[in-house]
Write a structure and sequence with these properties.
Helices cover 43% and strands 18% of the residues. By secondary structure, the chain is an alpha/beta fold.
């Protein structure tokens, strides 16, 4: 499968290609982007030349006067290149492009190779328009100085050769391999998307012995939950404002929001919706009782090639069974870990879960896996009541658990479990969309109208580690109380206050650091979801031979 490459290659993408071919592919072909402190600082340094200023005369009309023009867009269909020039200095019938960079100049002087190519593109376009361009400049804000580059035919040849190679790489839907233990990765804003050390470690082709940890270990942006009926969400400056009858008005910076979760009848103004979607912040919609309805999202990553790989792979029975075997086995192993940590005298349950985990690895069909998973679920939930230890003073009868039930849940523990699974499914649906996967086409859960099958597949091994763990914490610490539930007909649901307690406990769990069993570094559960989703995507495209799931000890 070969991608159709756009006719014009931007100069800044050619800069990225020279810096790192994989970065170029992720950013230009995969439309991946993420800000960090370096890109934000670069944007601040760039503001002075971002506003168009002045008019550039045609080459034959260029006189001897000296003047400057800012933010000039040039392109050439013949060269297949396009560039926006930060600053153009014109004097004595000649032009000098000046590019602004946030970083520091090389200690030995001159330009970095990627910047030399970018200034070469600008000079090539200027010469194509008939201008006399004999040199270019790069201003390095970190060094507070300009560095000069002479424009000659050798630089033009290098630019054309580099552009041809970049187009060849872009035509392949599979990105080039990551750099190996390169210092360039440390400041790259896409390191959490590229996962260079993790990729190379799992490929086991480079001899890498230690995986550099991801920074930050936790996400700065967090979900915002709005659950009061009649609440209203608006926008003011770079914040959203939330009006609730009982809590009044509160404000949250857009920068601090990963997604907005709405329960029941909550109104969102068009201004707030546009600001959220413009920043790639999804809006999750739930019923008042916690049923996950769906998402309002922006365009997101436009990586059609990854989804094509997903569609083809999910149609292959052998591939689906092999992947489902691992997911079900790891889920059962994680359930066993939770029982071992929180229960006493559960040897029979532990032995049954161990047996089911091994059986899952040998299953020959999805139907067999469903049967094995059912056996494990009966053993696990049969022992779940023994994991519940409400503190003294709370009636244990309030948190009796005799088995899993739902639609509607008929006791407080099942109400907590149902809400926990719904929120986790929401998080995995958003994660799938974030990495350009289709959350509705899975390999184990078969497609069904409105069901995020892939999200449910990938969340399986995290059910006990996140959802069930949150429920045990709420009950066993006495954080949730019998009065935090209400009975409606045959069902039991959480009150507004009970849901607030649940969300606090859930977010604490998602922010908790856990050691990745493969890479050895600590990372929060929330960041872990994205890492695992990206590793799954690499397996789909063939970059990784297997999907390395998550099992805790």
């Amino acid at each position: 499968m070969v991608s159709e490459v756009p006719e014009l290659l931007p100069a800044r993408m050619l800069n990225a290609f020279v810096f790192c071919p994989r970065l170029f592919h992720l950013e230009w072909v995969g439309s991946e982007w993420r800000e960090n402190e370096h890109t934000l600082a670069g944007s601040r340094d760039h503001r002075i030349v971002d506003q168009e200023q002045g008019v550039l005369p045609d080459a034959e009309e260029l006189g001897e006067d000296s003047f400057q023009v800012r933010s000039v867009l040039l392109s050439s269909e013949e060269e297949g290149l396009v560039a926006r020039l930060d600053l153009l200095e014109c004097a004595s019938g000649r032009v000098v492009p000046v590019d602004y960079k946030h970083g520091r100049a090389p200690e030995e002087g001159g330009l970095w190779p990627s910047d030399r190519i970018q200034i070469g593109v600008q000079a090539l376009l200027l010469r194509g328009e008939g201008y006399v361009c004999e040199r270019g400049m790069v201003y390095y804000a970190g060094s507070h100085r300009r560095e000069e580059q002479r424009i000659d035919e050798w630089l033009e040849i290098e630019v054309r050769r580099t552009a041809e190679e970049a187009r060849r790489v872009a035509a392949d839907p599979t990105p080039p391999p990551p750099l190996e233990e390169s210092k360039r990765c440390l400041g790259c804003s896409l390191v959490g998307i590229c996962l260079p050390d993790e990729h190379n470690y799992l490929r086991a082709t480079t001899g890498i012995e230690e995986v550099r940890r991801l920074y930050p270990a936790r996400d700065d942006a967090l979900p915002v939950f709005v659950q009061a009926n009649g609440a209203r969400v608006g926008k003011r400056s770079d914040e959203i404002e939330i009006w609730e009858r009982t809590r009044g008005k509160r404000r949250v910076r857009l920068l601090d929001i990963s997604h907005l979760a709405l329960f029941g009848n909550v109104q969102v103004t068009s201004g707030a919706r546009a600001a959220l979607l413009g920043r790639g912040i999804p809006i999750a919609h739930f019923s008042y009782g916690g049923w996950f309805y769906g998402l309002t999202t922006g365009l997101g990553p436009r990586n059609a090639a990854l989804r094509l790989h997903q569609y083809r792979a999910c149609q292959e029975a052998r591939w689906s069974i092999a992947l489902a075997q691992g997911v079900v086995s790891r889920k059962i192993r994680n359930c066993r870990t939770l029982v071992r940590r929180n229960g006493k005298d559960q040897k029979a349950t532990l032995a049954e879960l161990e047996r089911c985990s091994k059986e899952a690895q040998r299953a020959r069909s999805l139907e067999s896996l469903l049967g094995i998973e059912g056996q494990a679920a009966r053993a696990y939930f049969g022992a779940f009541s023994a994991l519940l230890h409400p503190p003294g003073g709370l009636a244990e009868a309030s948190f009796e658990f005799s088995g899993r039930n739902r639609r509607p849940p008929r006791d407080p523990v099942n109400a907590l479990l149902s809400l926990a699974y719904s929120i986790l499914a929401k998080d995995w649906t958003i994660t799938c969309l974030t990495v350009a996967l289709d959350p509705y086409l899975g390999f184990y859960h078969r497609p069904r109208f409105g069901r995020p099958a892939l999200a449910l597949d990938l969340m399986e091994e995290f059910r006990p580690l996140i959802a069930d763990s949150v429920v045990l914490t709420l009950v066993n610490t006495g954080e949730i109380l019998p009065e935090d539930f209400v009975t409606r007909g045959r069902g039991v649901a959480l009150t507004d206050e009970g849901r607030k307690k649940f969300f606090l406990a859930y977010e604490r769990r998602m922010a908790q650091l856990v050691t990745h069993p493969a890479f050895g570094y600590q990372i929060s559960y929330r960041r872990l979801l994205e890492v695992q989703a990206r590793l799954f995507g690499r397996h789909l495209t063939g970059e990784l031979d297997a999907y390395k799931g998550f099992v805790t000890r």
